[in-house]
Design goal:
Length: 169
């Protein structure tokens, strides 16, 4: 099942939450900053040893002080107008997140709208990519939850979910 909620992602008690991180994995603004604050300084210490993560890839860490057991960090592309492989990189983020989640036997997974904040990816286009990836892997999970901060973002996902099947092309 795929559903949309409007919440602070750090409050959710699930098997894994996804972080829209940057390549350092050492914390930043937006959802990344909120996750690092809520997980506590142990997360940063742990991630120093990981040595970063390239755009389009993902890494697993414990949730530390979060109610979620795991964090899957992924680095979304910065939007440069769409001609620098942004769509392929965003698809890769979702593919890698789901690969790790399935491997880890995660059954309840929550994701933010990767790249659509500070990184500037157009929201509708990003939501299409996200939903298409979610629908392709839905059967491996009890629940995939899209967690948005704003009501406007939740509405974008709900509109697109209503006109299933989603397509990203
Ligand atoms: P990026 O750098 O990948 O664009 P951002 O963190 O700037 O990541 O934004 C990604 C999305 O996460 C945005 O829609 C933003 O509103 C949302 N967001 C920010 N903080 C939180 C939070 N605590 N919980 C859920 N979503 C959040």
């Amino acid at each position: 099942m795929i559903r949309v909620i409007q919440s602070d992602i750090t409050l959710l008690q699930v098997d894994a939450i996804v972080n829209a991180a940057n390549e350092s994995l050492l914390g930043g603004g937006g959802v990344d900053g909120a996750i690092h604050r809520a997980a506590g300084p142990e997360l940063r210490e742990y991630n120093i040893r990981l040595g970063g993560c390239k755009t389009g890839e993902a890494r697993l860490t414990p949730g530390f002080k979060l109610p979620a057991r795991w964090i899957i960090h992924t680095v979304g592309p910065v939007w440069h107008g769409g001609k620098r492989g942004e769509a392929g990189l965003l698809k890769s983020c979702y593919r890698e997140v789901f690969r790790i989640a399935i491997e880890q036997n995660v059954k309840t997974l929550v994701l933010p709208a990767i790249s659509t904040g500070i990184y500037g990816y157009p929201k509708e286009a990003a939501a299409k990519i996200a939903l298409s990836a979610m629908q392709a892997t839905e059967k491996y999970f009890i629940e995939i939850i899209i967690c948005t901060f704003s009501a406007e973002d939740a509405a974008i996902y709900n509109r697109q979910l209503a006109k299933a099947p989603a397509s990203d092309n």
